[in-house]
Design a protein that fits this description.
Layout lengths: L6 H10 L4 H11 L6 H13 L1 E4 L7 H12 L12 E4 L4 H7 L6 E6 L9 H13 L4 E5 L2 H5 L3 H15 L3 E5 L2 H4 L2 H14 L5 E3 L11 H18 L4 E3 L7 H14 L12 E3 L2 H14 L16
Parallel strand pairs: 1-2, 1-8, 2-3, 3-4, 4-5, 5-6, 6-7
Length: about 300
């Protein structure tokens, strides 16, 4: 669905600029050709581990599965030089349990909210879900925008809803999920990024996807978002974090994403306070690649604990 060439969308694009589709896809393709070797590769792999939001968002989630997830988050592998992950990301029903299991660690408890993944229930119910998750101990809230409002051109309503969630979050960090595949065009992704960034606080995040649609994070749509972050930062001095999520399963992919961040936003974004990977199976591949860098041999996939492989 393409927006009408008049009205709020045109005015916003006149202000923030449009996306050169060919240019952004060419830049993304170049990032995927970069080769990282030896110590730099090992540093990148460990850094990627430290950026993972280890996630389970299934209807069949159980307390036992969440307990295994938290244990995996605390000790991803046997190597003491491998850091813990940044956060666990779970449904609100499991926040109290995760908060208890991760107490005393640096690992954040992140909870999806606002009627994940559709964002289509009444706002008062979405805000109550955020309020309860924060009360139960969520350090971070991953909210979804109402894409129907955005595609209808109701930009003020989208902004107002995000601002209401910010207020309800209190001190908890907010990540705003755009669901890029449902926005359909790069111009829409750029516009939604700016609407979100103007409603949130410094060090809050914008995020690509819920992981519940056929198309999720790609280097190209993520590039559109990090260029929006760069432009917003240059205009306002406000740093916004970035979280690609969904479909990132291999360490090689993660390294390509880090190259894009370094070359677009710089070293200040190469840490888990400003960059995250929403992932599950990615973690085990990162661990395998770290072991390969250190020993020269791959370990079989079953060498690592399976607690996160189905997430």
């Amino acid at each position: 669905m393409r927006m009408a060439k008049s009205s709020p969308f045109k005015r916003l694009l006149d202000e923030i600029g449009t996306v050169d589709q060919v240019g952004v896809e060419e830049r993304a393709a170049k990032f995927a050709t970069r080769s990282i070797k030896n110590n730099s590769k090992l540093w990148g792999l460990k850094t990627a581990v430290s950026m993972v939001d280890l996630t389970t968002l299934e209807g069949k989630d159980t307390p036992g599965k969440v307990a295994s997830l938290c244990q995996k988050a605390r000790a991803p592998g046997d190597d003491p030089e491998v850091p813990p992950v940044a956060a666990v990301c779970i449904y609100p029903a499991f926040v109290q349990q995760a908060h208890r299991l991760l107490a005393g660690t640096s690992i954040k408890v992140a909870s999806v909210a606002t009627s994940f993944p559709s964002g289509q229930t009444p706002l008062r119910l979405r805000l109550q879900e955020v309020r309860q998750a924060v009360a139960d101990g969520a350090d971070e809230i991953d909210m979804v925008i109402n894409r129907g409002l955005f595609l209808a051109g109701e930009f003020s309503a989208v902004s107002d809803e995000i601002a209401a969630v910010v207020q309800t979050c209190g001190d908890s960090r907010l990540k705003v999920i755009l669901e890029v595949s449902e926005l359909e065009t790069y111009d829409n992704v750029r516009a939604a990024s700016f609407i979100a960034m103007r409603a949130i606080r410094a060090e809050d995040f914008i995020k690509t996807s819920t992981g519940k649609t056929p198309s999720n994070a790609t280097l190209a749509n993520t590039q559109v978002m990090i260029e929006a972050i760069r432009d917003h930062y240059l205009a306002t001095g406000m740093p916004i974090g970035m979280k690609p999520a969904g479909g990132i399963q291999r360490a090689k992919q993660a390294l390509h994403f880090l190259v894009a961040v370094k070359e677009t936003l710089g070293d200040a974004w190469l840490n888990n306070t400003r960059y995250r990977f929403g992932a599950s199976s990615l973690l085990n591949d990162l661990l395998r690649q770290i072991e390969k860098q250190k020993t020269g041999a791959y370990q079989a996939p079953y060498y690592f604990t399976e607690s996160s492989e189905s997430y």
